[in-house]
Amino acid sequence: MKICVITYSFFSHGGVQRVTSTLFNELSLNNQIDILYVGNEKYSKDGLYGLNEDRINIEIKPLKLSFLERKIRKIVTVLNNKLGIFHNKFLYGLLEAAIFPKPLRNVYINYLNSKDYDIVIGSEGEIGLLLAAIADKLKAKTISWQHNSYEAYFNTREKYLWGREKSVEKLYPKLDAVVVLTEDDKHKYREKMNLHCKRIYNPLSFFSSEKSNCLHKNILSVGRLDRQKGFDLLIRAFEKIVREDNQWKLTIVGEGSDRGLLESLIQELGVSGRVDIVNFTDNIKSYYLKSSIYVSSSRWEGFGLVITEAMECGLPVAAFENAGPKEIINDNVNGILVPCEDIEALAQAILQLMHNEEKRLKMSQNAIIRAQHFNVSIVAKEWQKLFDRLISPSLEEKT
């Protein structure tokens, strides 16, 4: 089967990039895979996460707009973000025409049709909308692959798909399938948009035969240093922990725009000797194995690839109860869930795991078992089953 994955973000560090490389390395064993990169990042092997370039072809074709098209797009987007004037069934088409002008659409229609793909996948919400806008002009079957939660896409002011619910509601039905990461998202799209989606988890990006013994006095968190990941909340929670403990440390692995703010917060709270922020590394597994507790402090999280990685290495997880973590974590079985952005509750959950070694070790064993559900071969089979059903509708999906 000939498959194209369209993505706007690929040559940088992040969960989407890691998942894309992992999943399509596996699917390329039985399919011809092209990655069509339409963003503006420079080609770099750093963000490929072991993508097998012998089997997977990377095409680079950035979204290009004329000067006038860029100006119109910016004006219309700002107006919609601030006033929501295009967020209705009458004007959503004008919004999408400004964001994806007809000449731009035609470039991708002609390109994709010339390649004779069987399946075209739009990775993330924005590219999913572009694909939906041209789906009825393509020869291939089309899939939008959502990488964030329903709430993140539509409730995060002036980000993601803010103010474009009506566009999704009207355009996504033109697609042949929409893949979401959680049952919660599947339910919300059906309830709020009458859109029927397929839930497929993200795969683990690695297997680890070695597991943490959970006896290291280190707490770990991994992710981009930005507001979404909530490291400011984690640092504040850890400051409460420091009042009761003088041994455990916190390590945050990541890079991003908020590094300076987080370092200032660490100094302000007087925990600089107990908190380390280190850059992303290709050997992230070593950090999991030298830690005993993983914490997800995200304000919103579509799935939580790092949670499954931590579980694969045997770490119990304390997390805010948003869409992704509550799908992965069985509360008080392989981790602890607390109300979103509740710093005190997060601190108490971490303290429980720190001070109760028996509970920590039991949750560690359960986390290892839970991680097996996200094995890449299992996830790839679900995708392959979806591809087969779209190409041969007579095949009934077994659920």
UniProtKB/TrEMBL annotation:
GO molecular function per UniProt: glycosyltransferase activity
Domain of life the protein comes from: Bacteria
Keyword Protein biosynthesis: no
Pfam family, one: Glycos_transf_1
Keyword terms of this UniProt record: Transferase
EC number: 2.7.-.-
Domain spans labelled Glycosyl transferase family: 217-368
Keyword Secreted assigned: no
InterPro entries (alphabetical): Glyco_trans_1 (IPR001296)
Gene3D superfamilies: Glycogen Phosphorylase B
CDD domains per UniProt: GT4_AmsD-like (cd03820)
Protein name in UniProt: Exopolysaccharide phosphotransferase
Provenance organism: Clostridium pasteurianum DSM 525 = ATCC 6013
